[in-house]
Amino acid sequence: MQTQISHQILSTESGREAESILRNCVHCGFCTATCPTYQILSDELDSPRGRIYQIKQLLEGAQASSSVQQHLDRCLLCRSCETTCPSGVEYGRLLEIGRSHLVDHYHRPLGERLKRWLLRKLIPNKTYFAALLRVGQALKPLLPLKLGHNIPSRNKMPAAAWPTGDHPRKMLILDGCVQPSLAPSINLATAQVLDRVGISLIRTPSAGCCGAVEHHLDDAAAAKNTARRNIDHWWPHLQAGAEALIVTASGCAQMIKDYGHLLADDPEYAEAAQQLAAHTLDIAEVIDREELEPLKRSVNKQTRIAFHSSCTLQHGQGLAGCVEGILDRLGYQLTLVQDPHLCCGSAGTYSLLQPGLADELGRRKSQSLTADRPDIIATANIGCLTHLQKHSTLPVIHWIELLNSDNFTP
Predict the structure, then answer these.
(1) Whole-angstrom Cα distance, residue 300 to residue 405?
(2) Is 297-403 in the same CATH topology as 169-286?
(3) pTM score
(4) Tens of pLDDT, residues 62-111
(5) Per 3-state DSSP, what percentage of the chain is helix, strand, and coil (rounded to 5)?
(6) Which among 249, 167, 245 is positioned nearest to 203, based on CA atoms?
(7) Residues 107, 325: Cα–Cα separation, whole Å
(8) At the topology level of CATH, where does 7-105 sit?
């Protein structure tokens, strides 16, 4: 694709990066076939190809507008188009550059700015989030059905205790911001499963949010500060011999694996960020490398599992088929899922900012997951888990809980 980006923008690193990405695009349109928003809206401007053209025009000097902002906001950043693209266009990075340009050249209406500010302040703070969630759950029976439907049901903290075994092999684990309140059983199940394969987990609750919420809501400075804080908490453990940082939410894993890029221009943190990113593993990567025999006693071979591979697992981290392979090796029955590459509509804060599109995608994904009559739906990301619970009558769990006989009964 030919470009005429202004010299001022080309003098910046992001501008040169954008030009390189744009020149790789051959306008083939393969991306439109796998874009969730294009499938629903049938609007070229709401496809990756259309958004690429709009970003190109912005960088070439076109006026930023509410219309362009709307089309870029509607992107889920699922990156399914990247998996499909034969030219290797880094669409996700280009969208980040385009959105950053809009932040500098277009001011959202006050109501939108306030909503996004509240999300940035409340979601990453697990104390605030937990308190608001408890209030919402207490008031849920009194709320209108449509509003109450969006509030997750209360999840009790499992009675099982965190393993106390002190194994020679040690790894860190991300506590996260919303997962401890929404699904406290996930990290506990992870600790118990890894204990059975000889790995002890080190908890670092003060590390907090991974920074994805701030990053995706256009607060780059806050995301970088969050990354620096987390590095300060995690880096000493890695230097002391911890093998890796394990993340059970695939969206957070994708974010932390990008710390090297996020802090590339920070002379104090760039190297540590690169090293941390290299030592960050999705829990699927860890289990896939281990001997599975100690875990087979948990398997109920009669249980039929529909696995939803989150976008951040299969497209963002490139781990398509990893969890399915683990479950198959353990003896689980996996049901057929139509269009497994498509997003469920959660996408971080997307379901709060674009509820209409998110709910339609959630309904479609639920239909494809349940068509082959599974007993349970499993996924790899807390956002997907919570969103799918709204649209399915079947239990929705994190797949690691299937491997934990001490805390989960199919």
Answers:
(1) 10
(2) yes
(3) 0.92
(4) 999 999 999 999 999 999 999 999 999 999 999 999 999 999 899 899 99
(5) 55, 5, 35
(6) 245
(7) 46
(8) Fumarate Reductase Iron-sulfur Protein; Chain B, domain 2 (1.10.1060)
